[in-house]
Amino acid sequence: MSLGMHFAITDDDREQLLEMDGTDEAISEYVHEIIEERDDDYNVATDKAWDAIHRSLTDGRLAFDNGSGPLNLAVLGGKLLTSGEDELVVLVDKDQVPAVAAALMSVTQESLRRGYEQIDAADYAEFGDEDFDYTWDNFTDLTDFWQQAATSKRHVIFTA
């Protein structure tokens, strides 16, 4: 499984990425430039927990079109900018960011746990109490990140 990161990006970054739509290599290069050159206040690593976070916020599955908004936008929701074969890059526009941030603030450890319990353990090898604790720790960082993105009126990309 790959490592996940979220970035709060500017309008200019968004436009650059959309101009590259359909060009995975160019999008990947631009995202790596963002990773190397941007302010740490505008990104968060969710490591491998992004998978369980998405599943826990949706319906237990790892898919792009599952769950309901705005929670389904927190990880894999939004506009898929790449084919997803080598690297995922997903964009959530800034007009949707405040709703995602607010919805994440309403998620408690207990409600995330209920979502986590929907995951089919046969489809997710890491399933268990230790993984849930890891997922919760990363989820709290992700919630703080979305709040910062909303306050800053930035778009959000997720990459893995």
Describe this structure as you would to a colleague.
This protein has 160 residues and is α+β, with helices and mostly antiparallel strands. It is built from six helices and five strands; from the N terminus they run E-H-H-E-H-E-E-H-H-H-E. The chain has helices at 11-19, 24-37, 49-57, 97-105, 109-116, 129-151, and strands spanning 4-9, 43-47, 79-80, 89-92, 155-159. The chain starts with a strand and ends with a strand. Strands 2-1-5-4-3 form a five-stranded antiparallel sheet, with helices on both faces.
- The best one-word shape is globular
Q: Write down how many β-strands occur, each being a DSSP E stretch of 2 or more residues.
A: 5
> How would you characterize the largest beta sheet?
5 strands, antiparallel
Q: Rounded to an integer, what's the Rg over CA atoms?
A: 15 Å
Amount of beta strand = 5-15%
Alpha-beta classification = alpha+beta
Strand order of the largest sheet: 2-1-5-4-3
- The oligomerization state is single chain
Helix amount, in percent? 40-55%
Gap from first CA to last CA: 9 Å
Number of helices: 6
